[in-house]
TrEMBL record:
Statement: the UniProt record of this protein carries the keyword Glycoprotein: no
Pfam families xrefs: CBS, cNMP_binding, DUF294, DUF294_C
Span of the signal peptide: none
SMART domains from the UniProt entry: CBS (SM00116), cNMP (SM00100)
Keyword tags: CBS domain
Top-level lineage group: Bacteria
Domain CBS, first and last residues per copy: 174-230, 238-297
PANTHER family to which the protein is assigned, alphabetical: CBS DOMAIN-CONTAINING PROTEIN, CBS DOMAIN-CONTAINING PROTEIN CBSX3, MITOCHONDRIAL
Record-annotated Cyclic nucleotide-binding domain positions: 18-139
Protein name, entry field: DUF294 nucleotidyltransferase-like domain-containing protein
Source species: Christiangramia sediminicola
């Protein structure tokens, strides 16, 4: 008779390594010997210096904190185990007492796996053995640690390189539809084939293996000059042997090879030698074309662009660059910096061109403010444009005339940004809106009103406008606004408490039984809103806490948390966890957006792997922790 409990346990284990590496019969046998344990929140599973148990453990439901003692002999959480995480295995193999504490962070169901049942498979199965060796070598599963931030994103902070070098490390584009001929094909016929196919080279093959290559340069120097008649065979003009590489050739390797051998074509074969079948060809021209995705080249192209259509084409290349960086697992910090600079340059170029098209010169100094994700340097995809405009104070009789000028300018700018790919804000949070095209004095009065009124709408507007970055114009104007904001916030604890309540309006996105909270109705029914339920709670928390410390000129969410970790060493762990989770969720949304060719905001959970769901849950656990932290600090006990 089938043991239904063991079957359910085996089904659960099959989703997680190293159990997923076992044969079904092996897994069934292990599952039949597993002990199911229930723990209340705060219970100890094992403690430091305790003799090792006969079991190791996997979290079936709930969460477990792994803690070590810090320099002050106080427990410090070094890892958080969630659904599917294995812990307590290393001491069993190392034959040592436990070096850490394992304490449940919430009600948890834990499977205890007998070592004597599992160990034979770990020894006999090389895949399981390799997994364990890698796990022991890393000695941690903590997604917040410097060594293992790559759980959801790769974000090693010690990676350093020039922006331009990223381009050189990308794989080179390979042309697979090349022209091939046999050695006895005539020069004339080969040239006709090249002309018809509009290519610059022909590969000479025998048994599909490359024996020579002829380029248009060879035709020009050897045939067009009359040195050889066109009736001769192509073998008389071909270059041999052929320089070959495999398909993993990088742009840097291709450039160096062409320089070294004084050639402008490289043949791609199955194993990178002339002894295997031709798979494609790479030319110097291909490298030049591919440089369109080099950030340095894109920046130059943006600054030279003479039309909105050209800027739109460059914007499309930026998206290709972004996709390539993500696939190469480049750290998000570096990706964000590069994409922000390219986006910012696009906005600057658009504004500059629109100013040149205005009928009259600027009537006053002004500054263009980017709000929202671009203001926080977090805009990677084609999301809404949120912006505002501030102009210097002018005499009262000139005020409306000056405003009309800048409204006309803003209308031109926002229209062109929309063409480039930045959608209009549905709430009309745009510089072309008279509400957000104000003089310096009007903006100061506006912020004072928002802060003193502190209604829900005013709090929401403050949240949006507190995250701004100057994209064009007079920086003194935006600095003046920043100074004013911090002046009116000084000692205003009531406003911060209201801001804290607003920051809690989207609770942790895990509901009962740790399931994702999805949209309940409308066209997005059953989809998960990663912006509203994941990214924004962290954004709101970072803004609130950095304002409390009166820190200026840091608008990026992860940078705010990193600064907070410096300012509050006692809370360093939670702030670093928030910084990681912020980057992780933004990167996850970006990948989803590129995959589905949208803004990546709404996700069908059915499309996600079990691994992705678990990694996301880890980030959402951080949201819960920081929101509990805010409740206590700001004595906020209700949600708006």
């Amino acid at each position: 008779m089938t043991n239904s409990i063991a079957s359910r346990i085996a089904d659960f284990l099959s989703n997680f390594p190293p159990f997923s590496l076992l044969e079904k019969n092996q897994l069934d046998l292990i599952a039949s010997e597993i002990k199911v344990m229930y723990f209340e929140q705060g219970q100890t599973i094992f403690a430091r210096d305790e003799s090792v148990h006969d079991y190791f453990y996997i979290v079936q439901k709930g969460a477990v904190d792994l803690q070590k003692m810090n320099d002050n002999q106080e427990p410090e959480t070094i890892d958080k185990c969630d659904e599917g995480d294995v812990f307590g295995l290393r001491p069993l193999f190392a034959k040592e007492n436990y070096q850490i504490n394992a304490i449940t962070d919430e009600e948890s169901v834990i499977y205890a796996i007998p070592l004597n049942v599992f160990k034979p498979y770990a020894i006999s199965n090389p895949h399981v053995g390799n997994f364990l060796m890698e796990s022991f070598a890393s000695n941690t599963r903590n997604p917040y640690s410097n060594e293992h931030k790559g759980k959801l994103i790769s974000d090693e902070e010690d990676i350093s390189f020039k922006k331009e070098a990223l381009f050189e490390l990308q794989p080179i584009p390979i042309v697979k539809k090349m022209v091939t001929v046999s050695p006895d094909t005539s020069i004339q016929k080969s040239a006709i084939l090249m002309s018809n196919r509009r290519v610059g080279s022909v590969i000479v093959v025998e048994d599909q293996k490359p024996v020579g290559i002829v380029t248009d340069v060879d035709f020009r120097e050897l045939v067009a000059t009359g040195k050889l008649p066109i009736q001769n065979s192509i073998s008389e003009v071909m270059n041999s042997p052929v320089i070959c590489y495999s398909k993993n050739l990088t742009i840097a390797q291709a450039q160096l090879t062409m320089m070294k051998h004084n050639i402008n074509h490289i043949c791609i074969t199955k194993d990178g030698t002339p002894n295997t079948k031709v798979k494609g060809i790479v030319s110097e021209h291909d490298i030049i074309v591919s440089q369109g995705n080099n950030p340095a080249v894109l920046m130059k192209a943006i600054n030279r662009a003479s039309s909105t259509k050209k800027l739109k084409r460059i914007r499309n290349k930026i998206m290709i660059l972004l996709n390539g960086y993500l696939k190469s697992n480049i750290p998000l910090t570096h990706i964000s910096n590069i994409i922000f600079e390219l986006n910012d340059a696009t906005i600057k170029r658009t504004i500059k061109r629109c100013i040149e098209k205005m009928d009259t010169p600027l009537p006053a100094k002004f500054a263009w403010m980017s709000l929202g994700s671009q203001g926080r340097k977090e805009q990677l995809l084609h999301t809404d444009q949120d912006n505002a405009l501030i102009f210097e104070d002018v005499p009262e009789e000139k005020l409306e005339e000056t405003r009309a000028y800048f409204l006309k300018l803003a209308t031109k700018v926002t229209k062109r940004l929309n063409i480039i790919g930045y959608e209009f804000c549905p709430a009309e949070m745009l510089a072309r809106n008279p509400k957000y095209c104000l003089s310096e004095s009007e903006w100061k009065e506006q912020f004072s009103q928002w802060v003193t009124t502190s209604g829900n709408d005013e709090i929401l507007l403050c949240q949006i406008f507190f995250d701004f970055d100057i994209s064009y114009g007079e920086v003194k104007l935006t600095n003046s606004i920043s100074d004013h904001i911090f002046d009116i916030l000084k000692g205003n604890r009531n406003f911060l408490n209201r801001l804290a309540a607003q920051a809690l309006r989207n609770p942790s996105p895990l509901g009962f039984f740790r399931q994702f909270l999805v949209e309940q109705d409308g066209e997005r029914k059953d989809l998960f809103d990663i912006k509203k339920r994941g990214i924004m709670p962290l954004t709101d928390a970072a803004r609130l806490l950095i304002l409390e410390h009166r820190v200026k000129n840091i608008s990026n969410t992860s940078e705010r948390f990193e600064k907070l970790a410096q300012l509050e060493p006692n809370n360093k762990e939670i702030y670093q966890a928030c910084a990681y989770s912020s980057r992780a969720l933004i990167k996850f949304r970006t990948k989803q957006g590129l995959k589905h060719k949208d803004n990546g905001r709404f996700i069908n959970l059915e499309d996600l792997s079990k691994e992705d769901k678990i990694k996301l849950k880890r980030c959402f656990k951080t949201i819960k922790e920081i929101q509990e932290f805010i409740k206590v600090r700001f004595e906020t006990t209700y949600y708006l």
